[in-house]
Amino acid sequence: MxxxxxxxxxxxxxxxxxxxxEKLEYRGYDSAGIAVFSKKKKSEPSIxxxxxxxxxxxxxxxxxxxxxxxxxxxxxxxxxxxxxEPSVVNSHPQYAKDKRVVVxxxxxxxxxxxxxxRLMRDGCEFVSATDTEVVAHLLDRxxxxxxxxxISKLMYHVRGxxxxxxxxxxxxxxxxxxxxxxxxxxxxxxxxxxxxxDVPAILKYTRDVCFIENQxxxxxxxxxxxxxxxxxxxxxxxxxxxxxxxxxxxxGGFKHFxxxxxxxxxxxxxxxxxPRIKDGKVNLExxxxxxxxxxxxxxxxxxxxxSAYHVCMTARYMMEELVRIPVDVDLASEFRYRKPxxxxxxxxxxxxxxxxxxxxxxxxxxxxxLGHKVLAVVNxxxxxxxxxxxxxxxxxxxxxxxxxxTKAYSTQLAxxxxxxxxxxxxxxxxxxxxxxxxxxxLQRLPEKIERILEEKERIQWFANKFSHSxxxxxxxxxxDYASSLEGSLKLKEISYIHSEAYAxxxxxxxxxxxxxxxxxxxxxxxxxxLFEKLISNMVEVKSRGAYVLGVTSYGNYxxxxxxxxxxxxxxxxECFAASLVVIPxxxxxxxxxxxxxxxxxxxxxxxxxxxxx
Length: 613
Ligand code: AGP
Hints:
Helix content: 25-40%
Strand order of the largest sheet: 3-2-4-1-10-9-11-15
CATH topology of the largest domain: Glutamine Phosphoribosylpyrophosphate, subunit 1, domain 1
Bound molecules: 2-deoxy-2-amino glucitol-6-phosphate
CATH superfamily of the largest domain: Aminohydrolase, N-terminal nucleophile (Ntn) domain
Number of domains: 3
CATH class of the largest domain: Alpha Beta
Number of strands: 27
Distance between the termini: 30 Å
CATH architecture of the largest domain: 4-Layer Sandwich
């Protein structure tokens, strides 16, 4: 997820662009750049491009907050790297050789590799590792005096998601834009017109905006805005007045980043899965693990912290069942010191959203010291863990601002599902039909998550009843135990309510003594083979006074024979159920904390990335 902005009008553009990018830094902040039409040469306008690695303040310092860059029309970009590490050359704007066309992009071009190879065969020279540079070269190739025609041609050739801001060098004062699946708005004012990824970027200048629909092309001048469809027919578009204040706007109208990121999960999961499905099959060539290497793996050792550790716990259950090789799971802080003994042909998998967690990085180094290959599942491109691993599976969740992870967690689950299928195929445990069925179900997960989110009011109502609990227990068996761990952590880290997750079968070995009247116990039950056993555990706690919330899949209506309250999630293949059952658990935690009036996004004592021991 990146932030794009554009302005054309009567004022100096660069300061407006930088101000807009500053409001979009929550969308990405590893590098930034602007491109402005400037009369460097008296004879003709040229496009000046200024880019910098690091936070936006570097660009502010380079341009004296934009004052040193003349010109009244330009575009800007703040980056969250997906293709190509954070660097000046990989930052946007991207352009073809002579800046005939200059582009900023938010999204992922899924077929960029094949397009790039074709362009290179035709003699195009690339300087960056980005998918966006391919867009610049394609537009340069298609452009022959008609920008709308060039953009229309582009739309027929690229697959994936994009919101593009485009300058054509021989069109000074004009900005072009187009979107598919990535957000884009247009703003208008007496002082000029704007494009942006999101409202906060332009709220200071105008509240008069148009939310652009998919596959609509826009042409802006300082005085005029025109809309076209992919067939170049002109369209009429409605503008609306934004009522949000700036703070609400940064969260897309949500009260907290956490809720916004909970709602971004369908897109984050889709963005993580789709580019890895080619012709109906899982394709993880990016890992650079040969079939021989994959089939030679005899054991997997997973290492992580916190929620990422819960993904590893989930992975163990579903990988051992699907792939039939032993999967060990360790907390990174334990693994790094316990002098682990790893068998030969053990693949070590380290999972980390930030890629900077000190314990996880140390565990990676310990594994490499022992001579093992390390595969990292990471959300931040170019982070330490990503750089030091032997291969990296990037989750494309976009920047996660809230300390409590949600969308990154869900994309990590998607990553381990894809890894399991690839490992299963390599070991002959997953045949073509099984793969096809799993791929089809994986591609349905986003819409199923959306369906759960549509019922948030039921969860909010329930959460408000328990905002003042002192203890809340989560119990589950198998995969549901791993989900219980995540539900418990989510709750305690943002509500400060003591909570424990327990393997339901273990309760009777001591902990059940803590159950007394009114204590909330959340029973997670999506695994049919273990369902009746979990129900028995819920009866055990209920008979000791507990109030029982059941979280299960539609169809398991006998949950209501024992639960005081039941939340249902759509049915899915049981090995993927964790992706659905975690959604109500996230919402439960969020609304309990909200009910207590706490700072949900920045809980006390916590940091988004624990870069110290
Ligand atoms: C999760 O909500 C917590 N913020 C925390 O447990 C986190 O998962 C853990 O610190 C690991 O972080 P990482 O994924 O960036 O390595």
